[in-house]
Design brief:
Largest sheet: 4 strands, antiparallel
Distance between the termini: 39 Å
Strand order of the largest sheet: 1-2-3-4
Radius of gyration: 23 Å
Shape: globular
Strand content: under 5%
Length: about 500
């Protein structure tokens, strides 16, 4: 290493040294012009066209632009190990959800000569303006994130795994298994409690929900980085077992768990040893595998329609029978119809943009209501458990929403319209990033790294209300302390038997 001012030469790479030592790494890739200028300008140009014309064509053009930029960012993050930032992950998540989701509905939904807005009974101009605001938001996340946000992990960061790590992975897998056996977790995820605690998740269900995708990511990373042939085989076996457990939890959870596993690879020294072209092919094959896995999940879902409160085992049995009775082409057609309109998250935002352009928004009532939901009942027993964004929108705007695609954008739109769409994601990034920096210094390295990976699983979920960002911090502190306690247990040793 040769240091020149704040620049450090590491092999052929020139890195920037952070002003002070960080436990999560202190060397970073210099800021890139493509992130600071080129991609934000592309997004802002598409935004201007959407806002100026307010047409169906400009909305689709904006969605295609957003999809292309987000796909590039995703490949750069997963395939070329771009610096990991909360702003970047959130930009990719929201960009693909609102960009690719809109393109999918536009492309697959038969509607004759009608525009997408006309067919879905939405105002076309409001939809185009909503797309314009989202493009502006993604541009600000990419550009300002590159300019101001320090990457979570430095290029010199490496997490070393030991037998305590294996113990934690084993115990975590056992907790997930126990949650399935107890009924706290089942098909489509965690089950809420009944009786006096109706609507709430139990402690076992909450812990299992927090662990599910992040444990798989940890297992994959450990299997590629841990020393010892026996431990490699053992962690790979746990990776397969954990994927089987994640499979029935939902299509989105399964997809997010796979993405999270690729993100978690940067915790260790292992790097995918392929050229960019081979990485594209590898990611394409992985995406194809995930697609067929989602088809398999759809079999499970459809198989349970004729059963009264079926168990997971009954669903599997019925799905196998369904595979014999119904062709793959028919199931694929049903699957395509199922996701035609479900991916159109833009519709709710378009409505809210139209409402708030004509009358005042909630002015913070939505975000404050979701904040109180994240406060533990032990500390705030009087909190309103019946609060919902849809009910607030109905009260303010005279709408009749029941269950919509909530996100950080919908919360911002209900409260402050355009300004909420622009600033709420930035505020979420600042809050989550400050939390990561805090636990990076306050907790042992393994515990803080795992909490960060588990928290990123929330950032990867686009269709989640703003209260999830507050719950992310609460769960990180609570369950991170459990990880800390497990990692403080006496270390056992497994002799490498050279299998």
């Amino acid at each position: 290493m040769i240091q020149t001012n704040s620049l450090v030469q590491v092999g052929r790479r020139t890195l920037v040294r952070y002003p002070r030592p960080r436990r999560l790494g202190s060397l970073f890739i210099p800021q890139r012009r493509s992130y600071l200028l080129i991609m934000p300008m592309i997004l802002l140009s598409a935004s201007l066209i959407c806002f100026a014309t307010g047409s169906d064509f400009s909305m689709i053009l904006g969605a295609l632009t957003l999809t292309g930029v987000s796909a590039y960012l995703l490949f750069d993050l997963l395939g070329r190990r771009a610096p990991l930032r909360v702003s970047l992950v959130l930009a990719i998540t929201l960009g693909l959800a609102y960009g690719l989701g809109t393109v999918n509905t536009w492309y697959t939904l038969p509607r004759g000569d009608a525009t997408l807005g006309e067919f879905l009974h939405k105002d076309t101009e409001d939809l185009a303006h909503a797309m314009a605001f989202i493009l502006m938001s993604i541009a600000s996340l990419v550009g300002l994130g590159e300019l101001f946000e320090t990457p979570i992990f430095g290029e010199d960061f490496e997490l070393r795994f030991n037998n305590r790590s294996v113990l934690f992975l084993t115990l975590g897998t056992a907790v997930l298994g126990a949650s399935f056996l107890h009924g706290s977790t089942g098909f489509m995820g965690a089950a809420t409690e009944e009786g006096a605690e109706a609507g709430r998740l139990g402690y076992l269900a909450s812990l299992s929900e927090w662990l599910s995708g992040s444990l798989l990511a940890l297992a994959v990373c450990m299997s590629l980085n841990i020393r010892g042939r026996f431990l490699k085989l053992y962690t790979r076996a746990l990776s397969i077992l954990l994927f089987i457990m994640v499979f029935p939890l939902g299509r989105r959870i399964m997809i997010f768990a796979v993405v999270l596993s690729l993100l978690a690879l940067r915790l260790g020294r292992y790097k995918i040893p392929y050229s960019p072209l081979k990485k594209i092919v590898l990611l394409g094959l992985l995406g194809g595998g995930v697609y067929f896995a989602t088809i398999g999940f759809f079999y499970l879902r459809v198989a349970g329609y004729g059963l009264a409160r079926p168990t997971l085992a009954q669903r599997v049995s019925a799905a196998i029978q369904l595979a014999h009775d119904k062709s793959y082409a028919d199931i694929k057609e049903d699957f395509s119809k199922n996701v035609q309109t479900r991916t159109f998250l833009l519709g709710f935002i378009g409505d809210l943009v139209g409402f708030t352009s004509a009358e005042p928004g909630a002015h913070g009532t939505d975000i404050s209501g979701q904040l109180q939901l994240a406060i533990p009942s032990l500390l705030y027993p009087e909190k309103n458990l019946n609060f919902s964004e849809e009910n607030l929108a109905n009260e303010l705007f005279g709408a009749h929403y029941l269950d919509e695609a909530n996100s950080i954008y919908s919360t911002g739109a209900v409260d402050f319209g355009f300004w909420g769409i622009l600033f709420y994601p930035l505020a979420a990034v600042i809050m989550v990033r400050a939390f990561f920096e805090f636990i990076g210094e306050a907790m042992p390295l393994f515990a803080s790294s795992f909490v960060i990976i588990a928290s990123l699983s929330v950032i990867l979920e686009p269709e989640t209300a703003a209260d999830s960002y507050f719950l992310l911090i609460r769960s990180g502190i609570l369950f991170g302390s459990v990880v800390w306690a497990v990692m403080s247990l006496p270390e056992f040793r497994i002799k490498n038997v050279g299998l």
